[in-house]
Amino acid sequence: MNNELNTKIRRILSYDAMQEAERFTGKDSSTSEETMNLGLLLHLRSVKTKRNLLKTLNDTFVGISKGEYKMRVSDFGFKELLRLDFFSLSSKEVESFYIMWKDGILMCYDTFMGKINSAHIYFNYLQHFNLKTIFDSGVLDHVSGSWRHHENVWLSDHFREQYGFYYGWNKNADDRFVKIGSLDCREGLLFHIKNMLEYGEFLQTWIERPFLWLLHHMDTKNPNYDYNKINKERISLLPKEVINAISPKEDF
pLDDT at position 172, please? Predict the structure, then answer.
């Protein structure tokens, strides 16, 4: 995919309808009904545009059926590790929660009334270019998480000289840092992963776990739910090799 097309797709996926409405009216959507209504109209148009675009790319999109979603991510190489069926008090149906794996990327998602309710991937991403190139490329615009160390430290020459050896990298390498991250993968999953692979790699063995949320929508209905406990229980059900891959032995 050429850079011009990539830029166009990224611009469409990053479109913020409410921000655009506020720019047009010059008013805050929280206090202007006119701006709010315009934002909603632009949002509906944006959703349709994104859906049509991602369908042509055979990618994931908001509103995709659970069967089509499973087919597309499986065709891309994700392997099912765990499936838990549960009764949803919200949909009044039996829904499913999945955990899948592909080359250092952990995915989880749950279903709702034939569609995808929530979906995320978790990873350790090692960039191959300096951070300015990464930021300018926009490949991480939709990624949440943090770099391996605090932002006031990881860009410094002092940090690279003093602590680069922890990772087995050349201490003189230019900005070789890892994004401990996650991505909402309901929309444009394949596009985002392919673009990230042009600028770096997903570590097969994590150096640090990102914040994991391996819960489905019924887990939180219990006011006393413990997400740490639920995470641990679900991780324990995964294949040993995946548990080892996402369980760093040391925390620097």
Answer: 43
In this structure, the dihedral spanned by the alpha carbons of residues 54, 21, 183 and 130, taken in order and rounded to 10 degrees, is 100
Residue 221 pLDDT more than 60? yes
End-to-end CA distance of the chain: give it in Å, rounded. 38
Which of the given ranges, 3-17, 18-32, 103-117, 151-165, has the highest pLDDT on average?
103-117
Going from N- to C-terminal start, the domains of the chain cover 1-57, 60-245
Burial class of 144 by CB neighbour count within 10 A (0 to 12, 13 to 18, 19+) = middle
